[in-house]
From TrEMBL:
It holds the Pfam family YceD. It comes from Rhodosalinus sediminis. Residues 150-170 are annotated as: Disordered. This is DUF177 domain-containing protein.
Length: 187
């Protein structure tokens, strides 16, 4: 799958929390090979994924909690959302996850608010670093990449003999604002 860190603590992309040292961070470094990058590029709908690395540390916190702090670096190639030309984007983003041993799932049907801390999740038996890397990459890639100078043109579709509708005419509240201004002027 990947070149791993030389650290004796990071021998795999799957780290079993119960066997990690509870007093020191565990370093990790993933750099997937070409075959793995190609498979991930296909899964994410990318044209190419020439570079990808994910490295960081898994820190013990308190009794059974863990904090993953990492850095994701990637170069992705996607089709331009306007022209379909290849667009290359460099991604360098921090990745933070908190694995909590005392995680409480809400009861089914319970209405809950979105938590402020979106990095927290239940502590798994095994942290799958490749899955964390893939998720972080999928969240970081641009939704609608654009080639330099690519712009959406304006189109108008009207029946023969009809006048095209101007953009201002599609904004009904702009007309109401003008009417209100005229009524206030009359007062």
């Amino acid at each position: 799958m990947a070149r791993q860190s030389d650290s004796p603590n990071a021998r795999s992309d799957r780290l079993r929390l119960s066997v990690l040292p509870g007093s020191a961070p565990t370093a990790f470094a993933l750099q997937p090979d070409a075959e793995t990058r190609h498979a991930l590029a296909e899964e994410l709908g990318l044209a190419k994924l020439p570079k990808l690395r994910f490295e960081g540390r898994l820190h013990p916190e308190g009794r059974g909690d863990w904090r993953l702090e990492g850095e994701l670096g990637a170069t992705v190639v996607q089709p331009c959302a306007v022209t379909l030309e290849p667009v290359t984007t460099r991604i360098d983003v921090p990745v933070i996850r908190r694995y909590l041993a005392d995680w409480q799932e809400p009861a089914p049907g319970t209405e809950i608010e979105m938590p402020e801390d979106d990095t927290a999740e239940p502590a798994p038996e095994v942290v799958d670093l490749a899955a964390v890397m893939a998720e972080a990459l999928s969240l970081a890639i641009p939704d609608f990449p654009r080639a330099e100078g690519a712009a959406l043109g304006e189109q108008a579709a009207t029946p023969p003999g009809a006048a095209p509708i101007a953009e201002e005419e599609t904004k009904p509240f702009a007309g109401l604002a003008a009417l209100r201004a005229r009524l206030e002027d009359d007062d």
